[in-house]
Backbone:
């Protein structure tokens, strides 16, 4: 594996670990999902969570590429939240079966 690609993979793994470590504390803030069905949970687990993980990884790569520009523009934090934080919260923090997408990204 190329050194640059290896470094990128390490950085993405570190970001993923940071989200996973913090997600249990954040997940306890919300109660159980009212009206969550088994079908909704299966759809969430099999389709939406893998898509959310892919969005988090792609967002992380885009964030790294855009970092010099967002640092120059003074919005690196906002870019990180939108490109990595929100997809990671959708994937790892949202209760299983919570299909209310308007509330899926928590403030």
Residues:
């Amino acid at each position: 594996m190329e050194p640059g690609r290896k470094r990128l993979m390490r950085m993405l793994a570190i970001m993923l670990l940071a989200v996973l470590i913090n997600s249990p504390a954040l997940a306890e803030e919300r109660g159980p999902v009212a009206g969550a069905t088994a079908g909704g949970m299966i759809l969430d687990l099999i389709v939406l969570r893998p898509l959310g993980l892919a969005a988090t990884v792609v967002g992380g790569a885009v964030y790294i590429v855009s970092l010099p520009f967002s640092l120059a523009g003074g919005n690196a934090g906002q870019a990180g939240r939108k490109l990595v934080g929100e997809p990671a919260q959708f994937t790892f923090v949202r209760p299983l079966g919570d299909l209310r997408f308007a509330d899926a990204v928590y403030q």
